Amino acid sequence: MSLPSRLGCSTITFQHLPLDDALVDIAALGVTEIDLGALPGVCDHVPFGLDDTAIERVVGALAASGLRVRSVNGDIGDLNAPHADAAARTAHLERLLRLTAAAGAQALVLPAGALEHEPIESESADLERIAAALSTAGDAASAHGVELWVESLHFLRFSWGRERADALHARLDALGARVGVVLDVAHVTAAGDDLDDTIAAWGERIAHVHLRDAVRGDFSRRIGEGDVDFASAFRALDAVGYDGGFTLEQPSRAYVDDATTVAGGDRRAELAAVAERSLTRLRHAMTASAPER
Predict the structure, then answer these.
(1) According to the model, what pLDDT value does residue 251 have?
(2) Closest Cα partner for 104 from 66, 137, 135?
(3) What range(s) does the Xylose isomerase-like TIM barrel domain occupy (predicted)?
(4) Which of 38, 81, 96, 181 lies at 20 to 30 Å from 146 by C-alpha?
(5) What are the extents of the domains in the chain?
(6) For residues 194 and 148, what is the distance between their CA atoms, to the nearest angstrom?
(7) 61, 23 contact by CB (below 8 A)
């Protein structure tokens, strides 16, 4: 399958629209698959109170759109928190996994820790706690017939750079955890880590790729407005045998009070045009990265 045909769009890119409208605008871009955003503070497309009725409504909207779902991007709380409500976390995980399976998605994606670089207890203890929680979640995902992936390097979170992400991976390996890794090229760049080197080092761990532009210290630039060399990254991914999907995940805002404010009229059209330009630039980079035959 060619690289452009593996390019999808996250509903987080359309965080400013209700789910039904977001799916309409995504389908109009010509992509055939999505990541479904279920991140409080970023995207309201999946209700936090995810009861049976809500799951049925979301799955119905997805089915009506005709778009495939690659993953559900969710959050069950700060996995490095030492005194979390275990029962509430388990219940929320179960609901998200039920949604993931019912939507026909490949995996549920979880973040690696709180929205804070500093550890809650200590770096080592926090990493151990995150790895244990992810390992348990991976077993639960397997029971539902889906996979568990982690965005192990996220510039805003505890596991914000390559060093901590690698340390988390080592702990997951020691536990024999069934957990894949989501590579977000923008977060790697924002952290100041070398993207091609990270891809080479992570290799077969990489289960999915999020695409957005960035500069050091800023993970949220539109495609073509930052320092990410996408053609080089695509070549590096090809070199490690990566054959999974790619998703444009380009929110307007994240983790601020008005991040999910609904946009209409001219603003809706403007943001759809931005997404279309970004996808076009990514397709060009994918084509440029292809080896000559």
Answers:
(1) 81
(2) 66
(3) 26-258
(4) 81
(5) 4-289
(6) 26
(7) yes
**C-alpha span between 267 and 31 (Å, rounded):** 21
pLDDT digits (tens, 9 = 90+) for 268-287: 898 899 999 999 999 999 99
Q: What is the pLDDT of residues 253-263, one digit of tens each?
A: 654 555 456 66
Structure tokens at 155: 């510039």
- For every residue of 231-287, DSSP letters joined together read HHHHHHHHHTT--S-EEE---S--SSTTTT----HHHHHHHHHHHHHHHHHHHHHHH
Both tokens of 239, joined, read 């070199």
Q: Which helix (H) or strand (E) holds 152?
A: none
Q: Which fold has domain 4-289?
A: TIM Barrel (3.20.20)
- Cβ atoms of 224 and 248 closer than 8 Å: no
Strands, E, within the chain: which ranges?
Answer: 7-10, 33-37, 68-73, 107-111, 147-151, 180-184, 206-211, 213-215, 218-221, 246-248
Which of 57, 74, 60, 68 minimizes the C-alpha distance to 31?
Answer: 68
153/184 Cα distance (integer angstroms): 7
User: Structure tokens of 63?
Assistant: 């089915």
Distance CA 267, CA 123 (A): 43
Contact at 8 Å (CB) between 98 and 54? no
251-273-261 Cα angle (round to 5): 40
Placement of tokens 């939507």 in the chain: 103
pLDDT greater than 90 at residue 162:
yes
